Amino acid sequence: MDIESLLNPVGKSHVLTETSDIEIFQAVIDAIEERENIEINGGDDADDNLPIEPRPTRREVLKAVLTIGRYIEDMNDPIARKVEAILGSFNRQLRLDETKGLKNTTVTDFFQKA
Are 65 and 85 in contact (CB under 8 A)? Predict the structure, then answer.
C-alpha cells in the first residue's frame, strides 16, 4: 500500500470529481448567507422558518393537568399512579410559583389620594 492510496482512497475520491462548479458555488453562497443570518439574528436557527408557537399559560397547563388526572383516576395501573403523583407534584409547584409571583398589597393601595 502506498501513500497515495492512503491519502486518496478509491471509494472516496469520486465525490469531488462528481461535484460541479455550480454546486460548489451554491454551497459557498449558502454558507455565507447562513453566517450572515447567524450574525444578524444572533443564533443558528436559520433553518427554523416555522412559526414559533407561544408557550401555554399557567391556567392552560393547570387545566391540562386536571384533565389528565381525571382520565387516569379510574385506571388500575402502577404507571397511572406514578403519573398521578407526578402531576400532583407539578400542580403544587405551579401553584407555589404563582403565589411567589404575587405582590403584597394593603387596603390603602386600593384607594386613590384626593
Answer: no
Name the packing angle between helices 58-72 and 78-100 (round to 10°). Answer: 160
10-residue averages of pLDDT along the chain (114 residues): 72 60 82 79 58 86 92 91 92 90 84 76
State the sign of the Cα–Cα–Cα–Cα dihedral 62, 63, 64, 68: positive
Tell me the whole-structure pTM to 2 decimals. Answer: 0.46
CB 84 within 8 A of CB 73: yes
CA distance 72 to 76: 8
Cβ proximity of 72 and 83 under 8 Å: yes
What count of other Cβ atoms lies within 10 Å of the Cβ of residue 12?
8
Q: Which three cell numbers stand for residue 55?
A: 408557550
Cell (9 digits) for 79? 404507571
